[in-house]
Amino acid sequence: MSLKGKRVIVTGGSKGLGLGIVKRLCEEGANLIITYNTGDITEAKACAEAAGVEFAAYQADLSKDEEIHALAEKLASYDDIYGLVNNAGICLFENFFEVTPESYETTFNVNMKSVFFLTQKVTEQMVKQGIKGRVVCFSSITALSGSATQVHYGAAKGAVSSFTHMAAEALGQYGITVNAVMPGPIPTKHNSAYLALESSKKDLCGRMPMRSYGDPAYIADAVVYFLGERACWTTGTTLPVDGGYLAK
After folding, report:
1. 232-245: per-residue pLDDT in tens?
2. Is residue 101 part of a domain?
3. Confidence band of 157 (pLDDT split at 50, 70, 90)
4. 157 in a domain, yes or no?
5. Predicted local distance difference test score (pLDDT) of residue 137
6. Is 173 a member of any domain?
7. What residues make up the domain containing 66?
8. What is the mean pLDDT of residues 97-112?
9. Does residue 2 fall inside a structural domain?
10. Which of 43, 102, 221, 245 could staple 184 via S-S, CB 3.0–4.6 A?
11. Count of domains for the chain
């Protein structure tokens, strides 16, 4: 089944992995709704216009409770949402002993709380409309591999993995699937300087059987699979797209 004409939400769709997903969905002919915080939506909008698909964008700071819930209500006002891609995330590299209540709350709000409540509201509308929709969440290899400077981030992504299993159980009866992607090391604007360091390359690429960083397009491929009909009997799963990082 083609995604042509189907309305899909991509959170954090203005840059990084989210923008890569938006570009791929434009190629697939999906009508898009993206959310963003501080990013520039120009490129995402231009891709949609070039592809001739519908495009809408909503700004929201997902670290704030009130903005999470306001965004959820806006998205749930659409009666034809087929897919929700919970891509938006934040990773603060901090010493374990220096993590503050504020940075902890920011990390969990963006990476987990927004995922829970956006999924809750959007899928409630799917059920009302009889749409057998798709939800794709974003966990991380950090949820399983561990990192001394990403303790709160890894814990939040571990919660996303658990949520994926639980939401799949709750929503399967309505024909709605819920799956998650676990990206490996992929250069984007926020991490490219770190990944470019020779020490980082030696450590990360040396661990991966594929011996190289990934590309946002690889993640987009996984998302399109989970959104498509060929994944109609796949739910509650977490898929590492990581060059074999977790295999070591």
Report:
1. 999 999 999 999 89
2. yes
3. very high
4. yes
5. 98
6. yes
7. 7-238
8. 98
9. no
10. 245
11. 1
| pLDDT band at residue 138 under the 50/70/90 scheme | very high
Its pTM stands at: 0.95
What the block records as the tokens of 144 is 């399983």
Please tell me the distance from the alpha carbon of residue 37 to that of residue 59, in angstroms, as a whole number.
5
How large a percentage of the chain has pLDDT more than 70? 98
Among 28, 63, 17, residue whose Cα is nearest residue 182: 17
Catalytic residue numbers, as ranges: 140, 153, 157
What percent of the chain shows pLDDT beyond 90?
81
Distance (Å, whole) CA 110 – CA 201: 28
CATH number at residue 108: 3.40.50.720
CA atoms lying within 13 Å on the CB side of residue 144: 17
Q: Which 3-state string (H, E, C) describes 125-192?
A: HHHHHCCCCEEEEECCCHHHHCCCCCHHHHHHHHHHHHHHHHHHHHHHHHCCEEEEEEECCCCCCCCH
Tokens representing residue 22 in the block: 């938006």
Give the pair of three-digit tokens for residue 98.
């220096």
